[in-house]
From TrEMBL:
Residues 123-268 form the Peptidase M1 leukotriene A4 hydrolase/aminopeptidase C-terminal domain. SUPFAM superfamilies: ARM repeat (SSF48371), Metalloproteases ('zincins'), catalytic domain (SSF55486). Pfam families: Leuk-A4-hydro_C (PF09127), Peptidase_M1 (PF01433). PANTHER family: LEUKOTRIENE A-4 HYDROLASE, PEPTIDASE M1 LEUKOTRIENE A4 HYDROLASE_AMINOPEPTIDASE C-TERMINAL DOMAIN-CONTAINING PROTEIN. It comes from the Eukaryota. The keyword Zinc applies. Keywords: Hydrolase, Metal-binding, Metalloprotease, Protease, Zinc. Signal peptide: none annotated. One of its GO terms (molecular function) is aminopeptidase activity. Belongs to the peptidase M1 family. It comes from Nippostrongylus brasiliensis. Its cofactor is Zn(2+). This is Leukotriene A-4 hydrolase (inferred by orthology to a human protein).
Amino acid sequence: MYIERKICGQLVYEQFTPTHQFTKLIQDHTNVDPDVAFSCVPYEKGSALLFYLEQKLGGAEVFEEYLRDYLTTFAHKAIDSYQWKKHLFEYFHDKRDILNTIDFDAWFHAVGMPPEKPDYGQSMVVACEALFKQWIEANEEQATKITADAFKSMQPLQQIEFLSQLWQHDPPLEHWKLAALNEVYGLNDSENCEILLNWIRLCIKAKWEPIIEKAISFVSSQGRLKYCRPVYRDLIAWPAAKTRARDNYIQTRSTMHPITAEMIAKDLHMRHSTHTVCF
C-alpha cells in the first residue's frame, strides 16, 4: 500500500510546474500512462505556435491559404510534428529566411512557456477585466446596483474569462458576493458547460455550500474527463463535500467512460475495479 501511495502521489497528484515534462509540446510517454499525462498544455502551446507563425508569415489571409493546402495534403492521414514542419517549409519556400529565425526545437521540446509570445489582441479582455474589478471592489450595497447588462452583452468566451479571473483571485470571494453573482446572472441555470465549470469551481474554492448539489448534478451529467475530474478533485479536497462526492461516484460510475471512471477513482483513493476505498 505504501508503494501504491507513492505511485499515486507521483502520477496523479503531481502538479504541472513550469519545468514539468508534461509542459512540452512534444512529450515522451515512455512508461507513462497517457491518460495521466493528458492536459490542455500541448493544445494551448500548439495553438500559440500556429498563431505566432501566422503573424510572422504574412497574416491571417496568407496563413489560411496555407491551412487549406495542409488539410488537402494530409486529409485522411496521420502525421507527426516533423512531417508538418517539412510541409510548412515547403509551402513557404519563399520565406525560409523568416522560418529559419524560429527556434522550432524550443517550441517542440522546451518545458514551460513558449519561447516567443504571439501578439494577442486585448480588446475582448478589457470588458472582462472591468467587470472583474467592479465585483472585486464592490461592497454589499454597491453589488445590488450591478445589472446583468455587461455580462449578458459579452461573448461566451468573455463570460468564461470573467469567471476564470474571479476563480484565480485570492482570497476567495465572499459568500454574499457569490449569492449576488448567481442572482444577477443566473449562473446556476447556465446551459454552457464551460461557464458552469468555472462557476462551480469558483464557488467550491470559496467553500460556498449551496453549490455542492449543483456540482454533484454537473459531474453526473458530464462524461468528459475535462469537466468531471477538476470538480471531483475540488469536492474531495473540501471536507463538507468529500463524502457526497464519493457516494455520487459510486452511484454514477457505470454511466462514465471507462477512462473517466478510472482516473476519478484514483483521485478518490478508490480502486476502479472493485470500487472499494483504499486504506
